[in-house]
Amino acid sequence: MIRSGGAARAVLPSRDVLLPRHRSSSRSTGLALCALGVAVAASAAMSIVVGSVALSPAAVLASLLHPHAGGLQHAIVWELRLPRVLLGMLVGAGLGIAGAMLQMLFRNPLVDPYVTGVSAGAALAAAAGFMLGVAFAAIPLVAFVGGVVSASIVAVVGAGAGPSANLRLVLAGVAVSALCAALVTLLLLRSGSTGGLSILAWLAGGLAGRGWTELGPVSVYLGAAMLICVTLVHKLNALRLGREAAAGLGLRVEAARWQVMALSAFITAACVSVSGVIGFVGLMVPHGARRIVGGDARRLLPASALGGAAVVVAADACARIAMPSTELPLGVLLAIIGVPCFLAIARNPVSP
User: Fold this and answer.
1) pLDDT digit string (tens) for 9-35?
2) Of 294, 298, 268, 263, nearest to 282 (Cα)?
3) Which distant-in-sequence residues (6+ apart) come within 8 Å of 298 by Cβ?
4) In the chain, how long is the greatest CA-to-CA distance?
């Protein structure tokens, strides 16, 4: 499996060697992915129809077919709900993929994308931006930079090889997250009422007020990152077998680990920059997808992307109609749903 020579190059096992495919398994996986795709479409349709102003399916369809028409319904569909639905799909898919990648890397179903400290760094940067009077439209960019910087600090602090490398990364992530959380609390205490409310609203998570301006950059970032994910599927399949087994299969373990960590941190930072801190998606969705399609990265990553998109879009629609006079923060709703799911996962985990 490993070529000899002075500078031996790792030759990863073929997909048939590592995880053989069977026709029945491929057929059931295809059906599962089709079902998840239908769930995404249904969630998107529901999210466009429901809200403070309910729209009929016929009115929505007419607005979509005539994008240049005017009127209130057209503005609601094209300027408010459609970009929000597309952002929800991207954020959910990104968090689902990042969670699946990290769970395979750490071989732990209780790991989520925020273990790298990305969310804490993004939250601190956003809070500082609000305090300094940065325009709301620029907050996503500020949060993205903060998340990447935080993940970089975790990577430097937790660097090293050996059996305890993953543990060092987790501990570094916990420490950096705790420091960022303390600084966010300090900023909240020192901010005025308006600034404090803005920070709290962002920390609660949600897609309210997001539109085409945020959709463009995030779609480019996440689209490029998801294409890179395709090139890592065989490395992920090797990593989930353990360090020794992966090395025996010819994988350069340390290089692969850092590739997965960097890509997952980048994806998470892009998601958090527009949605705020939305918990449990990267934890619950990969776990559920693994129960449906198994642990093979070729199947798990697309299933996690579709599942995450469906969950976030559906939850965002429910958050808009859960309370009659105001919108429930998306992060709060997902926490209410996610805590029981987390406890169920802890009691009956499925090994990555």
Assistant:
1) 444 545 444 444 445 567 888 899 999
2) 268
3) 15, 19, 233, 237
4) 70
Residue 2 is classified by DSSP as B
Burial class (CB in 10 A: 0-12, 13-18, 19+), 218: buried
294 contacts 118 by C-beta, under 8 angstroms: no
- DSSP tag of 115: G
The dotted CATH code for 88-347 is 1.10.3470.10
How far apart are the C-alpha atoms of 229 and 101, rounded to whole Å?
9
- Residue 115 tokens read as 């273990």
Report the Cα 77 to chain-centroid distance in Å: 25
Maximum average pLDDT range among 157-161, 208-212, 235-239, 322-326: 235-239
Contact 191, 131 (CB under 8 A): yes
Interatomic CA distance for residues 11 and 15, integer angstroms: 12
Provide the token pair at 126. 């956003």
Q: Select from 274, 273, 271, 293 the least CA-distant residue to 282.
A: 271
